[in-house]
Design brief:
heterodimer; A: alpha+beta; seven-stranded mixed beta sheet; 12 helices; 54% helix; 17% strand; elongated; B: alpha/beta; six-stranded mixed beta sheet; four-stranded antiparallel beta sheet; 10 strands; 28% strand
Chain lengths: 393, 232
């Protein structure tokens, strides 16, 4: 019977062309939207590599041009924040804290692996405890690095693989310029600071050494507060810090707020796309339903004939559902030929599993949609009395 | 083979009641070639539909091979139609998008356990029987009326049915083509012993059959055997 259905649809390809085209385009749109959704979902389910709960960002904006004075104030601020009972750990950082709209990148080269772009995070020794980082190999920064000849860095697994492949990373030297090198002291599994929905990117942490960088300033303080610490402490802290940094602008926000705000950036377009796609698919479904209804009405005499030749009403029902599924198969085959190129060519460096999952889901949804659209017209076809249908001819 | 007892068929709409058949009692023995004649609207096709289990009577009993089939479910009726009955229609009822071979194979699609190659083999034999073995790859639109009707007969034959119900099989054909089709049906009856019930408007065709029944206003008005033809 399946061969018969394929033959029937193939022989009617001219009249079914528009329907097949419609199914093809619906599949492509669905595949694109599902790829986007799966990509984000896939990233969302992966570990971030840190714990952002109870972590606040204190943004520091100076209003004076005196570097020496600013630096002094910054150190006083740091000490004062550390002294609060509600504070567990504190670390200076650049503006590219987790979930910030800020990035800093640097390119690293090692041997034949040239110019690997990586996110760089300047942090203090306490940063590990502020963000509760877990290391896979090696160690985090510590006082022993004060006397280090090279600048210590901790890298993530992705950067390790890009630079060193399967080789041991700890102790490797990466040139910064002719006289200075980075030395890898630790490797961590994940660090996805930009957004929960972004993929892991190569990244490394560079140590802030206040003694060696006497004129440098950092724009953020990351503060891990005790669980349950609230707005009252925030007000008290800002009030007290404002006395130290009188002309500075100090702003406090939680990483949780920043996470939500960043998530909205992905969720809003995703929901909008989903709605547009849903509306489109609904229209396609209505069109499909109408065409199938019309086709079945046109084929009353064929239905009557098949009944006369021995088809039961259930077989007629199955035949029409089957025809629609075969029709969908033609549209989908065309779509799959295009869609499969994306994982094969690794377009946009998205993991193949995302495209493959989206492909299977889109195929399944199109089959489901066409079967649902065919359900009622096919039931109507099955209910036609053979004598009446034959008489209509 | 076929026995109709006190058959009545009434078509009921909201305001109108149309009696298509009333008090029809008819017995068609195995191997008989029976023709039914009567003016348009007298209930001939309705009777044929009831005999072919395509329609149910409002009253009365239909028996095929001694089995009363009125209580049968849709699936069982479909099975009997597929196994025992072949249909030939005035307007051929060929599926335009299928080749001649595929059209002839259709009844076997609804039989389980027959492979594609077996279907094709049997369809070729049936087409050879009606003299169309050279047209297997043609489509209905490429055939003449007579050829289309021969395809329809081959389709009716392929399942080796015991009964063929032909509703004005020569109605759309010229006299030469009509003659050809009639000869095929006569051969089937004589050589294979197939029971044939044929509705026709053509007296000449009807006179070639063994038995002629006339209908008028839904009632059987005469039943004549071959040897009575000169008197009818």
């Amino acid at each position: 019977m399946i061969r018969h259905l394929f033959k029937l649809i193939w022989n009617r390809k001219k009249s079914n062309f528009l329907l097949i085209t419609e199914i093809f385009f619906s599949f492509m749109v669905l595949f694109a939207v599902l790829s986007f959704v799966f990509y984000n979902y896939c990233n969302y389910t992966k570990p971030l590599g840190f714990d952002h709960q109870d972590v606040w960002q204190l943004t520091l904006r100076t209003n004076s041009d005196s570097t020496a004075q600013n630096r002094l104030i910054q150190e006083q601020l740091l000490q004062r924040v550390k002294s609060f009972d509600e504070v567990e750990h504190v670390s200076l950082s650049n503006s590219n804290v987790p979930f910030a709209f800020s990035m800093m990148t640097n390119s690293l080269s090692y041997g034949s692996n040239k110019e690997v772009q990586a996110n760089v995070y300047d942090v203090q020794d306490d940063f590990k405890d502020v963000m509760k980082l877990q290391l896979q190999q090696g160690r985090w920064f510590g006082p022993q690095d004060d006397a280090s000849r090279h600048r210590p860095i901790v890298i993530n697994l992705m950067l390790k693989q890009k630079l060193f492949g399967e080789e041991e990373a700890i102790g490797k030297l990466i040139p910064i310029n002719d006289s200075t090198n980075y030395t890898v002291i630790g490797v961590m599994d994940y660090y996805r600071a930009y957004s929960e929905f972004n993929a892991e990117e190569p990244a490394f942490f560079s140590r802030i050494n206040l003694q060696q960088n006497e004129h440098a300033l950092w724009s953020s303080l990351l503060i891990r507060v005790k669980p349950g610490t609230g707005v009252a402490f925030e007000e008290k802290m800002v009030r007290e810090l404002s006395r130290i940094a009188q002309n500075w602008t100090l702003e406090v926000t939680t990483l949780e707020k920043m996470r939500k705000s960043k998530a909205r950036l992905t969720l809003v377009p995703m929901i909008a796309l989903g709605l547009v796609c849903g509306f489109l698919i609904f229209n396609v479904a209505l069109g499909l339903f109408g065409v199938l209804w019309h086709n079945i009405n046109r084929r009353h005499s064929e239905i009557g004939l098949r009944r006369a030749l021995g088809a039961s009403s259930a077989q007629i029902y199955r035949q029409f559902i089957g025809e629609v599924l075969v029709l969908a198969t033609f549209g989908l085959l065309l779509g799959v030929v295009f869609a499969i190129q994306l994982p094969l060519l690794e377009v946009m460096q998205v993991e193949s599993v995302v495209y493959i999952s989206a492909l299977f889901a889109a195929v399944g949804l199109i089959y489901l949609l066409t079967a649902l659209c065919a359900f009622y017209p096919s039931r109507q076809a099955a209910a036609i009395q053979p004598a009446v249908a034959l008489h209509e001819e | 083979m076929i026995k109709l007892s006190d058959i009545e068929k009434v078509y009921q709409t909201k305001s109108i009641e149309t009696v298509a058949l009333q008090h029809v009692n008819l017995e068609v023995p195995k191997g008989e070639f029976l023709s039914i004649m009567g003016p348009s609207g007298c209930g001939k096709s309705t009777l044929l539909n009831i005999m072919g289990l395509l329609d149910v009577p409002s009253k009365g009993v239909v028996e095929i091979d001694g089995q009363t089939i009125l209580s049968y479910k849709d699936k069982e009726l479909a099975h009997i139609r597929n196994q025992k009955i072949g249909f030939v229609f005035q307007s051929y009822h060929l599926v335009q998008d299928l080749s001649v071979l595929d059209n002839v194979e259709l009844p076997l699609l609804y039989r389980s356990g027959i492979s594609g190659s077996e279907r094709s083999k049997r369809a070729k034999i049936a087409l050879e029987k009606v003299g169309l073995s050279a047209r297997t790859r043609h489509y209905p639109s490429q055939l003449s009326g007579g050829q289309r009707q021969r395809v329809a007969i081959a389709r009716a034959l392929i399942g080796q049915p015991e009964i063929i119900l032909a509703d004005e099989p020569t109605g759309n054909l010229d006299s030469v083509m009509g003659e050809e089709i009639m000869n095929i049906l006569l051969d089937l009856n004589r050589e294979d012993g197939t029971t044939i019930v044929m509705v026709t408007h053509d007296e000449n065709m009807a006179l070639k059959t063994e038995r002629l029944i006339r209908f008028f206003d839904g009632q059987q008005v005469s039943d004549a055997r071959m040897y009575d033809f000169q008197k009818v």
